[in-house]
What does this fold into?
Amino acid sequence: MKGALLKEWESGSREIDPSLRDELILEYAPLIKYVAQRMAVRLPPHIEIDDLVNAGTIGLIDAIEKFDSNRGVKFRTYAEFRVRGAMLDELRSLDWFPRSLRKKIHQLEEAYETLEQRLGRSVTEEEVAEMLGVDVDEFHKIVHQANGVSLISLEDLGYTPDRKGADDVLDFFASDHVDDPSLHLRIKEIEEIVGEAINLLPEKQRLVITLYYYEELTMKEIGKVLGITESRVSQIRTEAMIYLRGKLKRVMRD
It folds into this structure.
């Protein structure tokens, strides 16, 4: 799509029509695929990326219909927000995160918290595994099952925008996706807490979080940088997220 045409529509000086809608869908199709691919690496293998893409397409169409240029937000920003939300809605409908797994994640969070308070430093996989009464291989299996765990959702912050679904706030820390002033303030407060917690992570976990969320490298690219496998990168990211979840919950609870 020509840049001038998009700017004209974004400014509100051009009405949406079927031909323009089709052009917008084609223009932003790569965005849908990009979001789906980044989300898919956090999910169990039985989740089909095509299902995410289909849901994202519906989210894009919804964004086109509801976009309001008076809000002062670029359409791409608004569209990505809606696309992610539609994909998350699809995942929720699949109920892919069973209660038994949530219980295991909670146990991991408590183990990290207890050990960190006891030792006064970052803890190792071996120490967490011992705390849980399992060997390291079993610990890795639990972490692998927890792949896809998020830090905290916008809904957890009490934010209920006029759309279904909400995204993980960690995806917003390195961007300007939030146009709601009160939500922006709350996320900034949490960003400071999480930033301090990230600095306490073991070096490799800290690098993975930084490269994935802030530099937007893929798991495969991070693996090449660190000289480890893609699956190991995913495992390290999940371990870091579980630790950060527990840390954030503890601070918000206090």
User: Anything to note?
Assistant: Residues 17 and 23 are 10 Å apart (CA to CA). The two ends are 51 Å apart (CA to CA). The chain has a mean pLDDT of 77. The chain is about 70% helix and 0% strand.
